[in-house]
UniProtKB/TrEMBL annotation, chains A, B:
HAMAP family per the UniProt record, alphabetical: Phosphoketolase
Pfam families: XFP, XFP_C, XFP_N
Xref: InterPro entries: Phosphoketolase (IPR023962), THDP-binding (IPR029061), Transketo_C/PFOR_II (IPR009014), Xul5P/Fru6P_PKetolase (IPR005593), Xul5P/Fru6P_PKetolase_C (IPR018969), Xul5P/Fru6P_PKetolase_CS (IPR019790), Xul5P/Fru6P_PKetolase_N (IPR018970), Xul5P/Fru6P_PKetolase_ThDP_BS (IPR019789)
Domain Xylulose 5-phosphate/Fructose 6-phosphate phosphoketolase N-terminal: from-to ranges: 15-386
EC id: 4.1.2.-
Similarity section: Belongs to the XFP family.
Keywords: Lyase, Thiamine pyrophosphate
Cofactors named for this entry: thiamine diphosphate
EC main group: lyase
Protein's recorded name: Probable phosphoketolase
Length: 804, 804
């Protein structure tokens, strides 16, 4: 919202509100029509069973509140020429937001077959929750939506993500009182301490208290209003309340016109207050370079669940109760009384006043919608690809680590990446953000703080470092909020990166699910323009939780991610700094994916020069000739590895083998792009069988050292010819607070055990080299004893070349 | 806490607080010792490098606050003979709670080698974060803990879970201001609306505002105090504030004695207020059968991070900043100045006053601890197995569905389970609870409301159904809160069940991880007595999201669960009501597991009589002879199935095959216990290879219809001889709001496709029966067309026997 936007001084006239009410009735009529009608969309004939859908699906309860707010926002959008985005927390109310998009003309623009006439109306009704049609919720298919109405909890974090770096945008965010009970939503209230009142946009939270969930009252509707307001004030807001539409003791509902009047004047106050806050902040920022944190207004909208719907059904109260949640009249095909009540309900909106003979919204109501991109259903912010600019990326090869020979270093891999990210931030000052749960420094990306700070608009202290009111890093100790912010930021056409401890990214498993499903659905929606991928950098990983131990060890996010559509998901395990740079440069250029990149933060050996790294990452996996000794011949054994720590152990195992068994022909294969292991018919990155067989052979033992749970490698390779010979070591839930080498030993991933595995698997070695095998067993014991006695690793295991 | 507990009237005398301060100093000394010392535990000689651990691990910052609160709670526990449990939200402060357990003597009772003398002290210090020792956090190894100090967010929900049905228990719950930023914690504040002030215990939240996380200030420490208090009041609390210990502008810290005095008098007020609230509630409840919701007291404890530690290191402020988070002096082996500062720090606690010549805590301080089970480190509530009583379970066979022949019904499977659960609730009125995110009725378990209500202590309304102030079902729209409550309830020795939509259980993936890791660690801790398993009933599953579509479809929780230790995790897919009853009866009797049970809520065909169901569930999988036609002969094809919908499709496919290809020898295998598929060396429930081969053959095609992601079956069976012939159908992320049969068709799991799979896989059939194959293709098209036209399934697919 522009700080200089004009605003109307007088409260809206009665005439305005009559028209607004008619527009609202039209939206509600269309919503009910979508839930119930197959035919007879304008009720030009009496309702008969054949007009009614066989399966009644959808959620009525929240719908009238959503359309009510939409209608009122339209009034101020038109008057003040606002840019607004509508985030539908109660996404179940799909019929409502589909209806408003249709009334604004956007639906017909997006879907030509849903015409602006009676036939289009019938198609609109029929397609809703109908096989081959559209889902029942606000969804990617819904114009104006950035928010799937499935899992609850993310409306407010999405809204704040959308508002970052969009100073002219007003994001109205409806929060259902059901959603308000979720943890992620409850944690999102604090987001207002991160929003800058000059550089970022405005979020207007609307807590829609309709009192009920599926089967139960809501908590916030059942505490005294002063306690509720105190809580909202404690979240840093100035809450306004609009309440109305309830029935009196005779069952007589309050005239909606009275509620419209209260809503309109309250919204005028709120819009004025937002303009004042922004103007004051601008003035202060220009003068002092800082701002006082505003107490942003918010709205509590208390209306009956299923408002304007059937008040009673079969003698039971419906309006204003949980019974209005889904379909209030459920037997309208077979039960004549239900059908009559449905017809009466539909006619109560007076469709003949709203639609002309052709079935088109009458001109007086058409005139109420904003124009073009000002329509909330058509705003490009809700189709972020329309606004997406390419990132300006510094040449990552300029940040290369010098690798005079394989195994040089040690170098901190993520620290190197941090220098590149620092310059990404510098080159993209208004459309790239990094999110993290207070871990950017812990994850060794601290170079970014040479270019920027953590953005925080709460109080500051002299001891703060790397924190200021303006910054490109947004950190809060909530993975949910980080994920929601980033999703909102990406969905509105910007770029970002989420860095996180590997184990705790599981906190957002379910949020990832919803985002991946959103991206998947968008593949079939031509008007949805591609958005930047959601890229995770997972570090502080399973093998190096030196401080924290067992509770911080879980490498299973990749397993979870790979359950989603192959067209959407990517996973990379770069083994060193140059491969990490190359991988991340690629990921930040991609669209419509979820990229998972796992890389350690502890200094480690470096394997590839930048040229080699680029070639290796382009292939996604490859034979490391310098570590192999089989040349072009078929090897006796293949050692595979993926991930930095397993790569170190595999290379060290090769070093041991080449010293002790120089005649053994070994091939070392490193995998960066884990999806290369899968069949090309299963994943677009998959290798063909001949390619795979050329690398892993069809009949030689493969000892594979993997970063995560070992069965993932089997899941990816079970169709390969050589699968029966693939033997995987990885994390098997053995861990505690101990040394790095003890960790790999606990899980049998250590170099000695890999050598034992080779001896056990290559025919003939076990008998011939029993002594060497025993030596490896003894080496493990020696290392364990050293660690138990001195509390640190034996010094020789820090290296990858075994002393000759 | 007993409502009749006596309480001291006068504020504590100065002498008391001097001793309390000494006890606190002893705890802090032991904490610092654990982080740093290998030797010289009593500083009887000057500190030299060899006394210091080579790897300095642990978190000092939160520790002095934890020990401070513990010391003060001990004072009122002793005085008022309270039963108290301490939940350490900032579990990083492991050294603190290990120290208090040692000072109370519990540590030595639990671990005989950690003796009560100088040698024991040295062992105590050495083992901390040391290979072969104990983890750095509060953990299962820590006496008195029910809460792993790893992932943050669950302290308060655990505390409420512990308090349910424990009217005499006071649960003090420390919430770090970092943890307070997480979504799950933020959502937990509302839990006080669910706690009954007569039947349940008391939770005393202590918000420990030390201002910093790892690298950053905390949000709640950077808002004005009146805003914070308003928020806490808005959460329904009466907050008390104790602030102190901060340095003045000269770096001079406030005398801790002054802080002790404020803390002691405030805690007296709080304890008195709790007693008053409980007494008043009891009186009101006895008189009116209802209570007014109390405004429970809580404490805001604002002290410096790393209080009493090094104030500055190398010229940089440490105490009171994020630099105190982990190890404030990091180079104490090599840097003489650091080591001198460490020695000075340790000596500042005046160890010679605290420990006698033997290294034993001096008698005056020993006397301050409560006795026996009153010690928070020794309370049986923190070792719930000590309190666990077996559930009284009604004979589940009495609830059997009559199954005159396979395929009878349809019957709603979870509705039948509901009748049994209703009686489980009746027979266990004080130690069994059901948790759900507002879904118990939606999941068709509504029979339980014949026996009980949803417990809610907020406002009530005339329209409420199944809600009252006392009830055994606790519902809130937060999976996190449900999971946290149940974990807290189980860990303190009770029983429960979590029912949830299948897709959204991913919300608690990470909480499950932590609980499973807790259970795994407990296997190695002899004094930890077994607790009841955590059992999930996942319903409203992927195949029947008729209302909600794609966003509600994710059967991957089993995949996630199976990454944890096989000794801990179990997964069951009962295909009908009798098998669900048998499965659930088994699960509720088990200990120390996580049981995942997946079963649909929609009416479906019933396959097994109760006798057959018991036998089938006991085996975990089995051949269904009535559906097979191969007798004792080797079949031409095996149809496997797991899950209710896949079982229906597999049986219908067999019906089609037997009609059209009567000569084909078919074996139908149903799997309830999915872990039976795995190798017996991998999972305790796994079949041996000969057993598996006896059922699935070594060389015949197996067409497996699975409930979830198909690759899970490959992951479980890749070592089986016949693996290359196993062909799995399952959910492959195809879905929308559509009909049930359209859903299985979208994912190629339908009966027609299974028949096509059989034709394609059994040698010779494809050529010979090309016409039949085409017929199946046409049948699919016919069904799809019907659905697209009429919005419902073709009527014939509702049945499992194909019309002859």
């Amino acid at each position: 919202m522009s700080t200089t936007a004009p605003r109307g001084a007088a409260p809206p006239s009665g005439t305005d509100l009559r028209a607004l009410d008619a527009w609202w009735r039209a939206a509600n009529y269309l919503a009910v029509g979508q839930i119930y009608l197959m035919d007879n969309p304008l009720l030009r004939e009496p309702l008969v069973p054949a007009h009614i859908k066989p399966r009644l699906l959808g959620h009525w309860g929240t719908t009238p509140g959503l359309t009510f707010l939409w209608a009122h926002l339209n009034r101020v959008i038109v008057r003040d020429d606002l840019d607004a985005l509508y985030v539908t927390g109660p996404g179940h109310g799909g019929p409502g937001v589909v209806a408003t998009a249709y009334l604004e003309g956007t639906y017909t623009e997006r879907y030509a077959h849903i015409t602006d006439d009676a036939e289009g109306l019938q198609a609109l009704f029929r397609q809703f929750s109908f096989p081959g049609g559209i889902p029942s919720h606000a969804a990617p298919e819904t114009p104006g939506s950035i928010h799937e109405g499935g899992e609850l909890g993310y409306a407010l974090s999405h809204a704040y993500g959308a508002a970052f770096d969009n100073p002219d945008l007003l994001v109205a965010c409806v929060i259902g009182d059901g959603e308000a009970e979720t943890g992620p939503l409850a944690g999102s209230w604090q987001a207002n301490k991160f929003l800058h009142p000059v550089n970022d946009g405005t979020v207007l939270p609307v807590l829609h208290l309709n009192g009920y969930k599926i089967a139960n009252s809501t908590v916030l509707a059942r505490i005294p209003q002063d306690e509720l307001l105190r809580q909202l004030e404690g979240h840093g807001h100035r809450p306004y309340v609009v309440e109305g539409g309830f029935a009196d003791e005779n069952g007589q509902s309050e005239d909606p016109m009275a509620v419209h009047e209260r809503m309109a004047s309250t919204l005028d106050e709120i819009v004025a207050e937002i303009a004042r806050i922004r103007a004051d902040a601008k003035e202060q920022f220009d003068a002092e370079g800082r701002v006082d944190r505003p107490r942003w207004p918010m709205l509590v909208l208390r209306t009956p669940k299923g408002w304007t719907g059937p008040h009673e059904v079969d003698g039971k109260l419906v309006e204003g109760t949980w019974r209005a949640h889904q379909v209030p009249l459920s037997e309208t095909r077979d039960n004549d009384a239900h059908r009559a009540q449905l017809e009466q309900w539909l006619r109560s909106y007076r469709p003949d006043e709203l639609f002309d003979g052709e079935g088109r919204l009458v001109p007086a109501l058409r005139a109420l919608s904003p124009r073009g991109a000002k329509r909330m259903s058509a705003t490009p912010h809700a189709n972020g690809g329309e606004l997406l600019r390419d990132l300006r990326l510094p040449d990552f090869t300029d940040y290369a680590v010098d690798v005079p020979e394989p195994g040089s270093g040690p170098v901190g891999t993520t620290a190197v990446l941090g220098t590149w990210l620092r310059d990404v931030i510098r080159m993209n000052p208004d459309n790239f953000r990094m999110m993290a749960p207070d871990e950017t420094a812990s994850n060794r990306l601290q170079a970014v703080f040479e270019a920027t700070d953590r953005q925080f608009v709460g109080e500051s202290a002299a001891t703060d470092e790397g924190v200021s009111q303006v910054g490109r890093v947004t950190e809060v100790l909530s993975e949910h909020l980080c994920q929601g912010w980033l999703e909102g930021y990406l969905l509105t056409g910007r770029h970002g990166l989420f860095n996180c401890y590997e184990a705790f990214i599981h906190l957002v498993d379910s949020m990832f699910n919803q985002h991946a499903k959103w991206l998947d659905a968008c593949r079939d929606i031509p008007w949805r323009r591609p958005i930047a991928s959601l890229t995770y950098l997972l570090t502080s990983h399973v093998w190096r939780q030196d401080h924290n131990g067992f509770s911080h060890q879980d490498p299973g996010f990749i397993d979870h991610v790979l359950n989603k559509k192959p067209q959407i998901v990517r996973a990379y395990l770069p083994p060193d700094a140059n491969t990490l740079l190359s991988t991340m440069d690629h990921c930040l250029r991609t669209r419509n994916y979820v990229n998972v990149v796992v890389a350690g933060k502890q200094p480690g050996p470096q394997w590839l020069t930048m040229d080699e790294a680029v070639a290796h990452c382009t292939r996604g996996l490859g034979i490391w000739d310098w570590a192999s000794n089989c040349g072009n011949e078929e090897p006796d054994v293949v050692l595979g590895c993926a991930g930095d720590v397993p790569t170190l152990e595999a290379v060290a195992a090769v070093s041991l083998l080449r010293r002790h068994l120089p005649e053994l022909k070994i091939r070392l294969v490193n995998v960066v792009d884990i999806m290369r292991l899968q069949d090309e018919r299963e994943h677009p990155h998959g290798l063909s069988h001949p390619e795979f067989d050329g690398i892993f052979t069809t009949d030689r033992p493969v000892i594979f050292a993997y970063h995560g749970y070992p069965w993932l490698i089997h899941r990816l390779t079970y169709r390969r010819a050589n699968h029966a010979n693939i033997h995987v070591r990885g994390y098997k839930e053995e861990g505690t607070t101990t040394t790095p080498f003890d960790m790999v030993m606990l899980n049998d991933l250590d170099r000695f055990h890999l050598v034992i595995d080779v001896i056990d698997r290559v025919p003939g070695l076990a008998v011939k080299h029993a002594e060497l095998r025993q030596f490896m067993v003894d080496e493990r014991l020696r290392c364990r004893r050293h660690t138990r006695q001195y509390g640190e690793d034996a010094p020789d295991v820090a290296d990858w070349v075994w002393p000759g």
